[in-house]
Amino acid sequence: MPRKSRIRAGSGVTLHDVGQAAGVSAITVSRVLHTPDKVSEALREKVLAVVEQLGYVPNRAARHLASARSHTVLVLIPSLSNTVFIDTLAGIEEVLQPAGYQMLIGNTHYDAAQELQLLRAYLEHSPDGLLLTGLAQSAEFSQLLARHRLPAVHMMDLTADGRDCVGFSQEDAGRAMCEHLLARGRRRIAFLGAQLDERVQKRLDGYRAALAAAGCHQPARELLDPRPSSMQMGADMLDALLAAQLDCDAVFCCNDDLAIGLLARCQQRGIAVPGQLAVAGFNDLAPAAWTTPPLTTIATPRHDIGRIAAQQLLARLRGETTRPACIDLGFALQHRKSS
Amino acid sequence: MPRKSRIRAGSGVTLHDVGQAAGVSAITVSRVLHTPDKVSEALREKVLAVVEQLGYVPNRAARHLASARSHTVLVLIPSLSNTVFIDTLAGIEEVLQPAGYQMLIGNTHYDAAQELQLLRAYLEHSPDGLLLTGLAQSAEFSQLLARHRLPAVHMMDLTADGRDCVGFSQEDAGRAMCEHLLARGRRRIAFLGAQLDERVQKRLDGYRAALAAAGCHQPARELLDPRPSSMQMGADMLDALLAAQLDCDAVFCCNDDLAIGLLARCQQRGIAVPGQLAVAGFNDLAPAAWTTPPLTTIATPRHDIGRIAAQQLLARLRGETTRPACIDLGFALQHRKSS
DNA sequence: TTGTACGCGTTATCAT
DNA sequence: ATGATAACGCGTACAA
Questions:
Q1: Which positions are tagged coiled coil (chains A, B) (predicted)?
Q2: Which of A31, A68, B120, B312 is the most buried (most CB within 10 A)?
Q3: Mean local confidence (pLDDT), A3-18
């Protein structure tokens, strides 16, 4: 039966072509490339030379189809404009790239419904595994995961419910910052929150716990806005705080963006930091060290979170890991002059 | 011949399965999904119902293999830690996602050799097209592109040499900033450069042209460091500037990061900005509006660059475009209090 | 150690 | 408008 010529996918050179040119079968070429130990050295060298000469490029689609493994990992993050998650991506890339895995990035926009839609859409790529942000996926999401038997590692937070996770305790970090402010003699501490995703909620929990323990929790001092965080919002929140006459001596911002905007507004309004008001942020982004005054904040190991989470997922994919892993990478309080 | 059961790739439901359940052939199901016009309404509805019921998920790998189109675009950016390129990614995603294209991201680390390696590696995915940063790819890179007949759109800069590009004139932007400083009465203007990639070089060209035209160019006032840019480096560069006693009345930083670090150091050392020294940055990142004093800088349309570049590439892929496109999105000088 | 036969899920081609 | 058949390039299973 004549082989009808069709449009080729890649450069045109196939395993078969390489095999012919080297005087071996296609499968031998495949073995030279993937399991060189199983091929005699003579053939190996010959084949490799031809591979080089012909500029052979493997075809991932064919490989995927034949092996039922896509060598692809789906990474779901809430936002592309937040450096925190980008740093995590960099850590992930550092591990996946050398391992021959491709990362597919999905932006959930902090929305569980969009997260579910993304999973549905990306299922077409049949990823071998998932890296997720946080623990608050929807029930349908989890069912879909289970149905497709997809291993997943959750990043940025911790849980003991049996899911793999790599991160740190958001609540402990929130508490630690408040204990620091308390230790500096502050009692009237406000909490400024934006976005109000699960991580901010847990930092808020930590804030409440610490202040309650010190007997100085006042719900009126919690300023919460569900809209996306921004420096402008931080500046506005300082105005709101003053307008409400809440008589604060410290503010704990749920992230550095708010804190940076708030610090700038303090400068403009002539409010002495930390004299009149101590200011604290969260994440230790690059600008935090360069504000006036430099910002006290929580340094988070987001790059390592990505790195280790990717390693953990690869271990699962290789079947090396059995028990659920819960890897706590901790956090560090960066005490600077704003407190 | 008995069909041996093997491991399935996706959820397990195939076009064939859907077809059987609906009493049609696999190809009809395919048509219902991709070219519904070519199928009778009765069948269409029936098939769609079964697709829904069985939870059919198309298999991209098989589609790719059979159609020689991967619906995948390779995006090469120099860095993940620079917000500029992340914003571009967001713009790209905004266009590719709804169009059913998957973006693969490669990080070149500002290195042409790595860029070439990435292209080689990603060729396995046989991307349908490329989105590149800048114009300075290696000769081998371009040959590889040509050999595989891959359409590419260059981002961030302009050229009239026949390659598709979307961006703005880096040199004009550098010149514009210097003309602004000159117009404010400054004559002893320093240039601080880091990374020294092609874009920084062009901004430097613009700086030189503007100052030469005004008759006040002094090469000694160019501080260039090939290492990656950082706020720390900006602070260090102010120290270096003062140590060298170059007697400057303005500094043009090649990006906002340098400028932010430099401004902070000015605060620490009690240097009045803009009184003693005017300071300018480049890119208009979020923190630029919140420094003390707020930073004069060049706002760059990076989000739109990503968006339009992706659209241009899609047009090429559809064969709609013929002549090379060179799309100038311009830039805007943000005059703030630092100058 | 090397090769043969076949299937992975889809689309292109051609026939009806 | 719908279907039959082959082909995409590779890896698995099994044979030699």
A1: none
A2: B312
A3: 68
Residues B292, A10: C-beta atoms closer than 8 Å: no
pLDDT, one tens digit per residue, over B242-265 is 999 999 999 999 999 999 999 999
CB < 7 A contacts with chain D (nucleic strand) = A 1-6, 8-10, 12, 14-16, 26-27, 30, 33-34, 56, 58-59, 62-63, 65-67; B 4, 6, 23-28, 31, 38-40, 42-43, 62, 65-66, 68
| Angstrom distance (rounded) from CA B199 to CA B170 | 6
Q: Is the CB of A31 under 7 A from strand C?
A: yes
DSSP strands (E only) in chain B: 72-77, 102-107, 129-133, 152-155, 164-167, 189-194, 222-225, 250-253, 278-280, 297-299, 326-328, 332-334
What mean pLDDT is predicted for residues A149-178?
A: 97
B121 touches strand C (CB under 7 A): no
Do A35 and A63 contact (CB within 8 A), yes or no? no
pLDDT confidence band for A5 (50 / 70 / 90): very low
At residue B307, the 3 state secondary structure works out as: helix
Q: How many CA atoms lie within 13 A of A310 on its CB side?
A: 29
pLDDT at A2: 35
Tokens matching residue A241: 């705080």
| Whether the predicted pLDDT of B68 surpasses 90 | no
**Is the CB of residue B302 less than 8 Å from the CB of residue B154?**
no
Instruction: Report the distance separating Cα B12 and Cα A339, nearest Å.
Output: 58
Distance from C-alpha of A90 to C-alpha of A86, rounded to nearest angstrom:
6
Alpha-carbon distance of A164 to A159, in angstroms, equals 8
Label residue B230 left, alpha or beta by phi (over 0 means left) and psi (-120 to 50 means alpha): beta
B30-51 per-position pLDDT tens digit: 999 999 998 999 999 999 999 9
Q: What is the pLDDT of residue A12?
A: 81
CA distance B292 to A173: 29
Q: How does pLDDT run across B72-85, given as a tens digit for each residue?
A: 999 999 999 999 99
- Record: contact A81-B86, CB cut-off 8 A: yes
What is the DSSP secondary-structure string of B219-276?
GGGEEEE-SPP-HHHHHHHHHHHHHTT---SEEEESSHHHHHHHHHHHHHHT--TTTT
